[in-house]
C-alpha cells in the first residue's frame, strides 16, 4: 500500500480539540527564535530564584513533549498511544548526575522501569545513557586509552556491573535497551561496553541496541564493523540509527583543539550516510534488528519503499520506526496505521529535572530548518478539517 504523511486525521486523532489548539499555540511560539530564546532565559531566571513557574511549564511545553512526571503517568500516556498501535520507548529524562551514589541509585530505578514496562502491553523499549552511570571524566580517560589509577579501574568495573545489571534485567523481562550515543571523545567505551552486552544477551533475540550517529564521518563504517563482529561472535546486532545530537559542540571542540572535525561537512552527506545505514540494516534483517529514529520524512519513505521492494511485510519484528513524543505525529501515526512498528520516544520525570531536555526540544524546533513550519502547517490543516 502507498504510505502518505499528509493524512492529518490519522496523525492527530489521539489529540482532542483543546490539545490540538494548545499544540498550535506552542509551535507558533517556537516559530519565533526571539520568543524561544526569551522563554529559555526567563525559565532559567525563574528556576534560579525559585519562582512558581512549574504549573506554567507543565501545562505547556512539558505536556507537549513529556509523558508525565512519574512512570505511572507516562504509562497512562503510553496507553493512549497504544490505542493507535503506537508503542513507547520509556525515557527517564533526568540528566547531569555526577556522584557514585547517584550512579548506584540509578540502577534500581531502571530495573524498576524495566519490570514495570514488562507488565505493560505497549512499552517494548527503555533508553539509557552511559553518562547516567559513569563520570564523564572517567569515560574520557577510558576513551583516550590513558592508564587508569586503581581507583579509576575500580570505578570503571562498577560501571560495567551497573550496565550488566540493567541489561540482564532487560533480557530476563524481554524488554529492549537502547544505549544512547555520546560525544565522540567518550564514545569508544560506550561502544565497547555495548558490544559486550550484545554478545552476552543478544544470542537468541535482540535485547540490547547500540546507537549509530550518522552525522559522524565514521559511523556508517563502524555499523558494518559492528555487524561483522556480531556475525563472527554469533549474536544479533541491535542498531538504532539516528542523525545525531551534538553537532555544534563537536565542531567547536575540534576547532578549538585543532583536530579534524568528526562531523560530516554538510547535511547532504549526513542524509546519504543515514539512508545508506538504514539500507544496510534492511539488507541483513536475519542478523540485525533496526530502530529507525528520524523526523526526516524522505528517509522514512525510502526505508518503507525498500521493505516493499524486498517483499518484507510492515509488521516485521526486526524493524521499528521512531519519533519523539510531541513531534512528527504525521509520521508515527500514519506508519502505525499502515501496519508498521511505530514508536514514540516518551520522556518522563519531575518537571524541574527534565528542563534541560525541554529546552533542547524548543531550541531544536527553532533551529532545524522547516521543522516548526511543517508541524504548524499540519496542525493548521487538521484544525481546518475539524472546522475549529
TrEMBL record:
<dbReference type="InterPro" id="IPR015659">
    <property type="entry name" value="Proline_oxidase"/>
</dbReference>
<dbReference type="Pfam" id="PF01619">
    <property type="entry name" value="Pro_dh"/>
</dbReference>
<protein>
    <submittedName>
        <fullName>Proline dehydrogenase</fullName>
    </submittedName>
</protein>
<dbReference type="GO" id="GO:0071949">
    <property type="term" value="F:FAD binding"/>
</dbReference>
<dbReference type="GO" id="GO:0004657">
    <property type="term" value="F:proline dehydrogenase activity"/>
</dbReference>
<keyword id="KW-0560">Oxidoreductase</keyword>
<dbReference type="InterPro" id="IPR029041">
    <property type="entry name" value="FAD-linked_oxidoreductase-like"/>
</dbReference>
<feature type="domain" description="Proline dehydrogenase">
    <location>
        <begin position="75"/>
        <end position="372"/>
    </location>
</feature>
<dbReference type="InterPro" id="IPR002872">
    <property type="entry name" value="Proline_DH_dom"/>
</dbReference>
<dbReference type="GO" id="GO:0010133">
    <property type="term" value="P:L-proline catabolic process to L-glutamate"/>
</dbReference>
Amino acid at each position: 500500500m502507498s504510505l502518505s504523511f499528509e493524512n492529518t486525521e490519522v496523525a492527530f486523532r489521539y489529540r482532542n480539540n483543546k490539545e490540538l489548539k494548545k499544540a498550535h499555540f506552542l509551535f507558533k511560539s517556537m516559530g519565533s527564535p526571539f520568543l524561544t530564546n526569551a522563554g529559555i532565559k526567563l525559565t532559567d531566571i525563574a528556576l534560579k530564584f525559585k519562582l512558581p513557574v512549574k504549573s506554567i511549564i507543565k501545562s505547556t511545553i512539558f505536556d507537549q513533549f513529556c509523558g508525565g512526571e512519574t512512570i505511572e503517568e507516562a504509562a497512562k500516556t503510553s496507553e493512549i498511544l497504544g490505542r493507535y498501535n503506537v508503542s513507547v520507548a520509556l525515557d527517564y529524562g533526568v540528566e547531569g548526575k555526577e556522584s557514585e551514589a547517584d550512579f548506584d541509585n540509578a540502577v534500581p530505578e531502571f530495573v524498576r522501569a524495566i519490570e514495570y514496562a514488562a507488565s505493560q502491553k505497549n512499552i517494548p523499549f527503555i533508553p539509557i545513557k552511559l553518562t547516567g552511570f559513569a563520570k564523564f571524566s572517567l569515560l574520557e580517560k577510558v576513551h583516550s586509552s590513558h592508564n587508569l589509577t586503581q581507583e579509576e579501574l575500580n570505578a570503571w568495573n562498577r560501571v560495567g556491573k551497573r550496565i550488566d545489571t540493567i541489561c540482564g534485567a532487560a533480557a530476563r523481562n524481554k524488554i529492549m535497551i537502547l544505549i544512547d550515543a555520546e560525544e565522540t571523545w567518550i564514545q569508544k567505551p560506550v561502544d565497547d561496553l555495548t558490544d559486550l552486552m550484545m554478545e552476552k544477551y543478544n544470542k537468541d533475540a535482540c535485547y540490547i541496541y547500540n546507537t549509530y550517529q550518522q552525522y559522524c564521518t565514521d559511523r556508517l563504517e563502524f555499523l558494518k564493523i559492528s555487524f561483522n563482529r556480531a556475525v563472527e561472535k554469533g549474536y544479533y546486532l541491535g542498531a538504532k540509527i539516528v542523525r545525531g545530537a551534538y553537532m555544534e559542540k563537536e565542531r567547536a571542540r575540534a576547532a578549538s583543539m585543532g583536530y579534524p572535525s568528526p562531523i560530516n561537512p554538510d547535511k547532504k552527506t549526513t542524509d546519504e550516510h543515514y539512508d545508506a545505514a538504514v539500507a544496510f540494516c534492511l539488507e541483513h534483517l536475519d542478523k540485525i534488528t533496526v530502530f529507525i529514529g528520524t523526523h526526516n520524512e524522505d528517509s522514512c519513505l525510502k526505508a518503507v519503499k525498500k521493505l516493499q521492494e524486498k517483499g518484507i511485510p510492515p509488521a516485521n519484528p526486526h524493524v521499528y520506526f521512531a519519533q519523539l513524543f510531541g513531534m512528527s505525529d504525521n509520521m508515527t501515526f500514519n506508519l502505525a496505521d499502515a501496519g508498521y512498528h511505530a514508536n514514540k520516544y516518551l520522556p518522563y520525570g519531575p518537571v524541574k529535572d527534565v528542563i534541560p531536555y525541554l529546552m533542547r526540544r524548543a531550541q531544536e524546533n527553532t533551529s532545524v530548518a522547516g521543522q516548526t513550519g511543517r508541524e504548524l502547517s499540519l496542525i493548521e490543516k487538521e484544525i481546518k478539517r475539524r472546522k475549529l
